[in-house]
Amino acid sequence: HIKNIDSKLIGDIGYIRIIQFRNHTASELKKALSKLEAEHIKGLILDLRNNPGGLLNQASKVSNMFINKGVIVSIKGRNKDNDEIIYAKEQPIFKKPVVVLINSGTASAAEIVTGCLKDHNRAVVIGQRSFGKGNVQDVIPMQDGYALILTVAKYYTPNGFSIQAEGIVPNIEIKKKNEDNFILRESDLLHHLTSKKAVLQKPQEILIDNDTKEHKHLKNEFIFKEAVKVLNKEIKKCPESAKACYSYLKD
């Protein structure tokens, strides 16, 4: 069994890294959240950096753990009869403040979760603009063991933003000078599928020195320190119950 979740308690804050969205990701996340809740955490840092994505149904289940109603993701293609809207159906299991960490390696299903939590104002997203893999592909078997991968639709966030080639723009962007010159995203690939309605969202920017190194220890990372700072601000907004912070969680 391949591990999909890495979790730890850091002070009164829970930290969970989702490595990839495979078959048991949602159930593993549920167990990790339950253990952290037993430690009476005040908020959660959800790390989706370098998560390449995976299964749509797992991304939907994970998103639903934080919201209780509304759209999770829309799937729209050339044939309108095949369009699909996935809604939250279950009650959320975590209602406290959340910060999501992303970078240019956050793709596909991980972008679906990020876009859902951001559009529902359920989390503050920190990091870099994500990869931008927002297309739906069918694999059509052919002769001699070959297969054709056909793009049939695109993913859209609850607010109607296309993920394809645009990615998810964080609320707070942490970047180095000229960093984008060295980052490969979907939009840099030859003949990539574009989005007709590109919406540029201006994030709050934090520029860091080019010689700022990534630390092996999570606690020493600049982005982690910023996440803790933001999360503590969110926690102070709702000292009694995180449910009071988010009006859409109220019936």
Order of helices and strands: EEHEHEEEHEEEEEH
Mean pLDDT: 84
Q: CATH superfamily name? A: 2-enoyl-CoA Hydratase, Chain A, domain 1
CATH topology: 2-enoyl-CoA Hydratase, Chain A, domain 1
Enumerate the strands of the largest sheet in spatial order, edge to edge or round the barrel. Answer: 1-2-3-6-7-10-11
Tell me the major beta sheet.
Answer: 7 strands, mixed
Head-to-tail CA distance between termini? 39 Å
Count the helices. How many?
A: 4
Give the low-confidence spans: 186-193, 240-251
Shape: globular
Q: Count of DSSP E strands?
A: 11
Domain Tail specific protease: 1-175
Keywords: Hydrolase, Protease, Serine protease
GO molecular function, one term: serine-type peptidase activity
Organism: Desulfurella acetivorans
Keywords:
251 residues, alpha/beta, 2-enoyl-CoA Hydratase, Chain A, domain 1, seven-stranded mixed sheet, 4 helices, 25% strand, serine-type peptidase activity
Describe the structure.
The model is unreliable at 186-193 and 240-251 (pLDDT under 50). This protein has helices at 25-38, 56-64, 109-119, 222-237, and strands at 5-10, 13-18, 43-47, 71-77, 84-87, 98-102, 124-127, 135-141, 147-156, 172-176, 204-208. Strand 6 (98-102), helix 3 (109-119) and strand 7 (124-127) form a beta-alpha-beta unit. Strands 1-2-3-6-7-10-11 form a 7-stranded mixed beta sheet, with helices on both faces. It has a 4-stranded antiparallel beta sheet with strand order 5-4-9-8. Helix 1 packs parallel to helix 2 and helix 2 runs parallel beside helix 3 (109-119). It has one domain: 2-enoyl-CoA Hydratase, Chain A, domain 1 (Alpha-Beta Complex), CATH 3.90.226.10. Helix content is 20%, strand content 25%. It contains 4 helices and 11 strands.
